[in-house]
Design goal:
There is one protein chain. With about 210 residues, the chain is mostly helical. About 70% of the residues lie in helices and about 0% in strands. It has two domains: about 60 residues, Helicase, Ruva Protein, domain 3, CATH 1.10.8.60; about 140 residues, Zinc Finger, Delta Prime, domain 3. The chain contains eleven helices and two strands; from the N terminus they run H-E-H-H-E-H-H-H-H-H-H-H-H. Helix 7 packs antiparallel against helix 10, helix 8 crosses helix 9 and helix 10 runs antiparallel to helix 11. The N and C termini lie far apart (about 45 Å).
């Protein structure tokens, strides 16, 4: 894999064609924005891109089209995000802060907060779908509050949100002990903190840490 001449954010048809051919080698096609993400994120490290494409092509099977969402989810940055989120959802504050240190060495705090917003929006939608389905189950005197089995919850969320079952199941397991109202409250808090950062009332790192340990 020769080192390609590349500037982040630049348009390079030759490298973009190479990425498409490499994806084709794994019997897959790939979106243009996913190609840009890989080239920018690796600074056109072709060996690393080849590895990421192989992982992505395997991950999406039996599908054969690699989207931006897929390459983001498979990237090293997002694996660190998932680690941090797992600690946060479990209430392990000290381990969350250790994970944040690792992430801050890669991305500014305000970008990590934007990533958290994306996940919170996704989780709130998932929980809403599941709770709406649970409310429709029979209940009354002598009948305990019922909940759809996990496989049925996964099926409903996949149908509504057009997501892969593997991803949905992992998220729903993560959220087992989180109520919808709590997720909504945390999203509102994060939105307030983002506004405070943008208006200079809070430092981005302080806002991120306060959000995670509150």
């Amino acid at each position: 894999f020769p080192k390609a001449k590349f500037y982040v954010g630049s348009h390079n048809p030759q490298l973009e064609t190479w990425v498409r051919k490499e994806a084709h080698r794994y019997k897959a096609t790939i979106d243009d924005d996913a190609i840009t993400y890989l080239l920018d994120g690796t600074e056109a490290n072709l060996r690393q891109i080849a590895n990421e494409l192989e992982k992505a092509a395997t991950y999406i099977l039996p599908q054969k089209h690699i989207t931006l969402e897929v390459v983001e989810e498979m990237s090293p940055y997002h694996s660190h995000v998932f680690t941090m989120l797992d600690f946060w959802l479990k209430g392990q504050s000290h381990r969350v802060l250790d994970s944040v240190e690792e992430l801050l060495s890669r991305q500014p705090a305000i970008q990590i907060m934007a990533t958290l917003q994306t996940f919170l929006s996704r989780w709130i939608e998932m929980k809403s779908i599941c709770e709406e389905a649970n409310h429709k189950l029979p209940h009354g005197p002598g009948i305990q509050k019922r909940e759809l089995p996990l496989p049925e919850q996964v099926k409903r969320v996949c149908s509504h949100m057009k997501m892969r079952p593997f991803v949905v199941e992992k998220d729903l397991k993560r959220l087992k002990n989180w109520r919808l109202e709590r997720l909504v409250a945390k999203k509102e808090m994060l939105t307030r903190f983002e506004t405070n950062v943008k208006t200079g009332l809070m430092h981005d790192r302080n806002a991120l840490e306060l959000f995670l340990i509150d």
